[in-house]
Design a protein that fits this description.
heterotrimer; A mainly alpha; B mainly alpha; C alpha/beta; A: mainly alpha; MetI-like fold; about 75% helix; B: mainly alpha
Chain lengths: ~220, ~220, ~250
Amino acid sequence: MSYQLDWTQIWQNRGLIIEGLGTTIALSAVALVLALVVGMLIGTIGASRSRTGRIAAGLYVECMRNVPLLVHMYVWYMALAFLRLPPFTCAVLGLTLYSSAYVAEVVRAGLGSVPRGQAQAAAASGLRPAQVLFLVVYPQALRIIAPSLASLSSQLIKDSSLASVIAVADLTYQAGAIEGQTFRTFEVYITIAVLYLALVFIVSRGLMSLPGMREAPAVGRIADA
Amino acid sequence: MPEVIQQNLPFLLAGLAMTARLAAIGIVGGTLLGLVLAIVRHARIPLLNPLAVAYIEIVRGTPLLVVLFICFFALPSFFGYRTNAVDAAALGFVLFIAAYLAEDFRSGLRSVRPGLTQAGLATGLTPVQVFFLIVLPQAVRRAIPPVFSQYVRLFKFTSVASVIGVRELTGSALLVNAREFQPVAIIATVALTYLVICSAMSLVGRWLYARLAIRS
Amino acid sequence: MSAAPLIVLDHVCKQYGTNPVLRDCSLSVAAGEIVVVCGPSGSGKSTLIKCINGLEPYQSGSIRFEGQEVGARGTDLPRLRARIGMVFQSFELYPHMTAVQNVMLAQVHVLKRSRAEARERSLELLTRVGLRERAEAYPANLSGGQQQRVAIARALALDPVAMLFDEPTSALDPEMINEVLDVMVGLAQDGMTMVVVTHEMGFARRVASRVVFMDEGRIVEDRPSEQFFRAPETERARIFLSKIIAH
């Protein structure tokens, strides 16, 4: 093997790596929060009694989900270039819309698995529909879908690596930059692979250790679609 | 159909063909590797099992793009071989999807009731026979819904190969755009193409599941 | 005795798709009356009482509660439901809340009582159903009979003028049925207006003013309780009673 491992060059460029890591975390955090909000909204509509609502939500999910994430990003970055959105914003939009479809599916299934009698009992005691939803149905649904949401969050962090393609200076982008300078291809990519692993591990363990996140049965493997 | 698409149709269709090719390789290779990994994990084969666990956890925690970069840049330079973008992408997809399929197949294996195994053994079959004749077919059948959705996911993921220069659908479209500069029409067409194909695949998957549910 | 009846159903019809569930049902319940609704399964009894508080819609006829038309467009259903308490067959306690929190929820969010006031009232109600010492327990740690008694306390929390019971003891093990029935008898003796769907004929004999017998979506008999048990008018009711009382 003619390749000599040299990790010092990676260490020397640790500043770039840390910057990239910061951007990845920022991008993932913003997109995750937005995807959760949008996804919960769409998912709730998808589980509602209104047939138009269910169809609309279903269409949204199919359209957002079946277009590759990379194409989503190109849509904002290239097709809608006249909007002159900065690359970070394009990445956030692409990542949010794509991930929100998965969140919506998980939320919809979770809401559907709360026994109907719960909503009836709450309504029978005079609570208004919004109160029924927020006080009785959502708390139970969230416990059921928590594991799926945790795995969606991990997936989102990994998906954020595609932002490097549209010139967002995230971890993957910096890896490419370092590789271009030092030619230490093996070391740099192994390093960021380990960093992504660590990030995903920390986030999923962190989420699962939150109070109330017991080992509830995950609602199908829809999250991996 | 927009003119720019019409004019470049052969080139784009070639790209679509490459997408299909990569997806097919990924599906077949990934399924085989995934099955092997699942069996190793399920049977807890010594020595191989910890390796399988490590492989699965590491690959599942790594972004696809990074896996492709490793296959295209890192591995060839480390091991000293030469490769082209298409082969590297194919390898990357197989390695990537196998880790996810392994987990789905493993759930399928776990979901087969122990009573079935006992029944098979009681009729005098050896454990190996029971596994391949009774347990595995059941497990695969159970695993079809999540496995199929992984296939659809892979089809979408082939777009990432464009980053390492493979001329699949997305890559070809970008090249066309570089020449013609009509991003709206081109990217819209690409998005629509994926949408139609992936939706169709999902429908097939749901039909398959419905047919299987009736039988089992 | 000429006060207007509290609940009036008038030629109510309901169907699920093409399936008729309620056929031309008419019934009236005066304040303080205890009406027991019985009949074979699938006769529409649960659907009937769920129509009274608007949980189930109906296609034709009218249901009036305190003079208000339940199915009318402008009716404020949540407000109406605050005046009717409902107890479900499967208890339906909120699993993510303790017993006292279950009883407090509607008081705080519907009646806008302060948490302290609601808590005090809830503990009173739990004492009334005999579960004061289990106030901080979660439903998962309560037996079926205990859960149902908490559910009754929860239904009483809004000081309703009437209560609907949908087979309250059908999901309970036999040894727990009596603890729930005793609470219900207590309510009846305190003058609560009750419509109870049940198979427990012993309870009906003890406190019911009237018995309504339903079959295939129709009200087949509607008579004072004593008369019904002594001599049912229709053949179907006779067969039903003989099967029920036999075991």
